[in-house]
Amino acid sequence: MKTRPRINRWTEARRELLFGDFSLKSLVQPHFVVQGSRVDNPVHGMEGIHQQSVDVLIETIRNDADHGIHAVMLFGVIDHSEKDEQATKASDSTSHLHQAIKQIKDAFGDLIVIMTDVCLCTATDHGHCGLVEHGHIVNDASVERLCEIAVSHAEAGADFVCASDMMDGRVSAIRHALEKANHTSTGVLSYSVKYASSFYGPFRHSADSSPEFGDRSTHQMNINSGYGEAVLEAKLDESEGADIIMVKPGLPYLDVLRQVANSVHRPVAVYNVSGEYAMVMNSAKDPESRKNMVCEIMTSFKRAGADVVVTYHAREIAQNAWML
Ligand code: PBG
Questions:
Q1: Which domain, by its residues, includes 96?
Q2: Which of 144, 172, 242, 270 is 20 to 30 A removed from 234 (C-alpha atoms)?
Q3: Which residue stretches of the chain have pLDDT < 50?
């Protein structure tokens, strides 16, 4: 399979994110992008995190960049009326998410590493991460749609397209699709080791991506599965050409993170997910105790082998210079 090690070295911001000393520059701030203008709605259960329209988002990213955050992960939130069985909106180059990618690229060039979530769940009317036929999430047809979404994000200017769906074979299919469309410097971050976790609740509320029936256990990993399964998934994605391997969630799977970091040769990311964020925000109301808790958590990710942390805490860390 095609692996292009230069992808991770392509810009200074990519190099600092993936290969610099563990610091503020190793953090990625997630964003929820909604349609409209001047929209800045707090997300229920995630104090400090807002759903924002593109105009507000650009200002937020500018302010974050002034404080030293140079990487973002974008999630498009799609209105119910625009969802359908095929997740059409997810690959629509006129969507607000695609506008956001373009405008961030125009405004900041290569200063910001733009990561975009590639999945069907925010755009399907049933909320599943793949296409559904006769009550089953089908694999290969879903992968085809994922490729179209990934290419549309690359076209808009994404640095890394981030496959969070857990379909089999999607990394190599996306890599092929990117090559075919001549996006040879766009990377693939794979949510390689992603568990069917109970820690995604606040995110699903914000992204309006809860499944209408069933759950995600036919594709996301079983929480009881062992290190062998985790390492298998990580190595598969590495062999398929993933540029970054991610483990998710973070805190309940630090042991898995260590195993994966020992097993692959690509940079490793960890996703400090919405439920983990909510736990901290709910239990440490004053900033001083939160500072200690958040820094301890970031240290644990580093110790367990993470090169990159996707975390909703990034902004508060940056604004208060908790981590330099
Ligand atoms: C989409 C996706 C999810 C998250 C990131 N991408 C939800 C899910 O898999 O149900 C969760 C992130 C978080 O909880 O912060 N598939």
A1: 5-319
A2: 144
A3: none
Measure Cα distances from 140 to 217, 221, 286 in Å: 17, 18, 48
Question: Residue 176, exposed/middle/buried by CB under 10 A (0-12, 13-18, 19+)?
Answer: middle
Q: Which pLDDT score is estimated for 1?
A: 65
> Active-site residue 248, yes or no?
yes
* 195 falls within a domain: yes
Please pick, among 235, 248, 285, 302, the residue that the annotation labels catalytic: 248
Whether 112 is in a domain gets the answer: yes
Residue 83 lies in a domain: yes
Which CATH number belongs to the domain containing residue 36 in this structure? 3.20.20.70
Domain count, the chain: 1
Closest atom of ligand 1 to CA, residue 166: 16
* Amino acid, res. 269: A
* pTM for the whole structure: 0.97
Mean confidence (pLDDT) of the chain: 96
Kindly give the distance from the C-alpha atom of residue 287 to the centroid of ligand 1, in angstroms, as a whole number.
27
Evaluate whether residue 27 is within a structural domain: yes
Query: From the CA of 257, how far away is ligand 1's center (Å)?
Result: 18
